[in-house]
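Example A, followed by Example B.
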Amino acid sequence: MNSFILPLLLLIPLIGAILSVAMSRKQEYAKYVAIICSAVTLAITLFCLYDLSNADYVYAQSSAWIDTESIKISFAVGVDGMSMLMILLTSLLVLLVSVFSSSEKDRPSTFFALIMAMEVGLLGVYMAQDYFLFYIFWEVTLIPMYFLISGWGGPRRHYAAIKFFIYTHVASLVMLIGIFALAMQASAGGALDFSFEAVKAASMAGLFSPAFQLVVFGMLFFGFAVKMPLVPFHTWLPDAHVEAPTAGSVLLAGVMLKMGSYGIIRVCLDVLPDGAHQWQTAMIVLAIIAILYGAYACIAQKDLKKMVAFSSISHMGMVLLGIAMLSGIGIQFAIFQMFAHGLITAVLFMVCGIVGHNAGTREIPLLGGLAGKMPVFAAFMMFGFLASLGLPGLVGFVAEFGIIMSFFEYLADIEVLWPIVFALASLMLTAGYYLWAMQRTLFGKETDKIDLTNVHDVSKLEGISLGVLCALIALFGILPALAMGLIENMPLVLWGVV
């Protein structure tokens, strides 16, 4: 039974996507299909979590896909602590997004089918154990997101969708060249084997020279950095978020951005340790630029959703900073920050979607006095903002504290402490733009430019989705060991740099 668990995780949302599409005449039932299939997927994920008690890959399953004298590609899947945490995040957010979006009236069968299809791609990325399979699932995620933005987005949705696709697809092609380089070098003249195991064995055998690692690490890092995204490869993200429907924004920020940082840890650090050390300074510089640029850009934004989009650039820069420490504590807290950011941004984009739908605008200068008109909404918005700025007791504080602590240890080792100012400055900027936005939208004076007379508060299903997320943000903030335990079980030798 165990060998079928992970293929089953992929099969259920795939069935959900097919059934949703098939309900073209009974489109109102598509939401129930999506909710049921995503709930079953989450249940199986929780079962896997319960059984995940060691550091090795569990539920590993491999079947030959293309097996010739010249090339070997397998359908190989498996999970460990890091991938299991990302799978949990994916299955949870897809379920909550399906519940949150259950009132969707515009072609709901296609809408929910795309959400289910995206879950297939995302889960496949996090459980793939073959580089070719990893790349296929990576590309699969682009297609449903493209159609979600283009079909259900805002006025500039087609421009945003094309920009999103071009940026991420071009980066993926560069990443593919790096993957072929790894497999070809690892094969040493034999059959081209794309399995993680074969490439890892070649790395440990010393088949990857420092010069080779320098170049290939750069190719792979570029592909992953665009997906995160890092400055200066970030410009597709604000456009995509502003134009995307709420469900698309939640999955894009909550899970898809994590594919980039996951790839850096899973691929770059694991098999190219010398390349990681050669690129360490560049990664630290790019991380600090992303952290500060994203925070400064947030201050200039008038659109709430665009502000949250730029905040994601800053927080993903924090993830890269933890990874760039090339230490056990840095990488572990970077993974925890990925999980924390996924939960928090889901709340933030949901409240942005609610205010845009109910008030008719997301423009901060036009909003004011929402706390009096929408008290439940105001409570969720305040909670999300405080969690994102790192309030102690919530999950964001634990993650950012660990990353900054690892950065301080790194600086102490090289006896240069002044760069810690950049990390601390980002925390102050983050608090500044969130408190500023909260003050103006919730507690500022009502403007005469929009009519809030008939505005309604959070609906029951929206409240359930937001309530579950806020409860988890508090739970993992108070008991971070519930998530950190999965990561800590992983041996540090997983990442060749440590």
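Example B, a separate protein, is given below in the same form.
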Amino acid sequence: MPHIEKKEESEDFLKSLGFPTITVHDTFTHFDFLSPGRRVLLIGPMGSGKTEFAARVWRDAAIAQKKSDKVKAMTSTGNLDRRKVFFIRSEIDSSRFEDYPDDALCYRSGYVRCGDNIAKIRDSFGLEEVLKDNPEVGTYIIDEASFFDERLAYVVRNYSLEKGCMFIFPTLILNFRRDIFNSTARLMLDIATDVIPLTAYCEHPDCMDSAFYTYRYYQVDGKECPALYFDPLIVVGGDKQKDGSLEPNYASRCDRHHFLPAKEYTFFTLKPLGEEAGRGNVEPLYKEIRALNEDKEHSELYRNLMLRYGSDPDGEIYINSIVPNHIAEKALCYLFCEQNMIGETLLLKLARDLELDTVYMSKTLSDNRHPVSFEQGALL
């Protein structure tokens, strides 16, 4: 946890220097490596500086390691020393910073080199291997912890309690839907000892408010197209501006400029259609998915958007949400992968009968840990 001086102490110090009566903010200084067993969440939208904060911890550790053995005794528990920092990133996130060195802890405005103290892991079992191989490390920075399986939260908690190790998590707690990211994120909140919230400027060109939310959108033919509520939870891609329907872009946005179309449609139309299909009446879902694939303006989704946002000042942006491709594929993946309302057999049948893009669906489901084979043999 960062060391933050009490406001009263800061005020007394400034008064002693002859400062007039002014607003004095808390002093944000160095990171605290003294306290054992901390599990620190750095939360905020994309672009709020979570990983840059982690890089600052790395630099503070490098300075602290130059101090005496007396300091080492204060920052150590047994054989581990909390001034020794190790950085961990998810394997599925490896394409975000492909232009940087392999050993870089990188963020949007730079990076620091970690040497051998960096690893990419797939899951909590990979984390256990890293912990086993580095018994002297006292602080682990685990980037985007919400990308991992929920077991990771308790691996972290148990290890920190048993060994006195500190863990720092620069991570999204809210997804682009403004929901708790997933069950892993919920458990991270449960086991955390400290939470440091970060914000960013709203990245809308006409706004300077603080942003708490991550906004997902597609850039298609120069249009800003907000991601629909049932867009895939995880979309693996790089960290550069993208054009087209396959990969989204992200921005920090305030409440007013965080556009999230089709939430009502998802709960009032799409999910009931999925429930009905799961009970055996597939035709209504088939009709809607076909419209989303072949004639969007005759879909229930389009009618819902026009009714909800047709007269809204930002209505055009909301309506742009149906411009990207693969909306039918996304709707089916949502019902199958996240809601478990339709089975694999029905998913494969609808994908085949409606001639959907199974390459896109296969990648989406695999990225979201529900791999399905769309090979011809699996469809028969």
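On Example B: The chain has 14 helices and 16 strands.
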